[in-house]
Amino acid sequence: MQVRGLVDSAVNEVGNILLGKEPQIRLALCCLFARGHLLLEDLPGMGKTTLSHALAAVLGLSWKRVQFTSDLLPADILGVSVFDASDASFTFHPGPIFTQLLLADEINRTTPRTQSALLEAMAEGQVTVEGETRQLPQPFFVIATQNPVHQSGTYPLPESQLDRFLMRLELGYPHPQAERQMFERRHSGAMEIQNPRQCIDMGQLEMIRVAVSKVHASENLIDYLQRLVAYTRQSPEFEVGLSPRGALALLDCAKTWAAMNNRGHVVPEDIQAVLPAVAAHRLVPSGDYAGDGDALVDLLRRDVDVVGR
After folding, report:
1. SS (H, E, C) 129-175
2. How do residues 138-175 score in pLDDT, each as one tens digit?
3. What domains are defined for the chain?
4. What is the pTM of this model?
């Protein structure tokens, strides 16, 4: 089966659980195929946990959830060594981070020290506990959820940590038609969530990632990417533009989006499709600009020519 067929089957399966959110499901899969990590920012009750659990099921990944609270410690995530008196030795008890898909729920409700416990795992696929480095299962994918920073009891994620997330998505309120279907399911007693069937196994996941690595980006496409990046660094509306890591993230996701659509080359529409999810959380507006990161992305789409003059 071609990549698009696998992706469509996974999207449909998750879409039977999370109604009316096909664009976000496709972008979440793109993030995983591109070997990144995903930040979901939205109000409570929007389906963030449902999305993560459904993705784990369709990909056959082990799944664990950590509820981040103000008293959570790094050892609660990474694990701890416990002294065994019977043989006078320490035995390491791995924490919930030793899984393939980790849901870090409400990550901004814990302290920066505990938030930082994820950084090595996200960047290198390993953790160092008590001086010993331990490898994490592969693939390793973090989905972190974040409540809006205006809510009480939150610690805003610093820019350096936000940059570790390849994509940031918002689910938003459901479309009225999808919400109506949800009401009808609950009313009929069919609302109980069942695990979706697995659509992509480990071999197929690796095949998709290999296909991504073979996608070609032309010189003209790279020129367009460079114009986008340069605009974020030179225009007065931007206080902080895209870093080299952010620019590479945009290219990686565009290549992945192309592979998901059975294309062996990147087109500008691929960059534009992933641009909001990849760039909005990395861009900081200047003090004189009234918009946020999403408004800056709209500015990029409007002012940067696809074809250079």
Report:
1. ECCEEEECCCCCEEEEEECCCCCCCCCCCCHHHHCCCCEEECCCCCC
2. 999 999 998 776 555 667 777 777 888 999 999 888 88
3. 3-188 (3.40.50.300), 214-303 (1.10.8.80)
4. 0.90
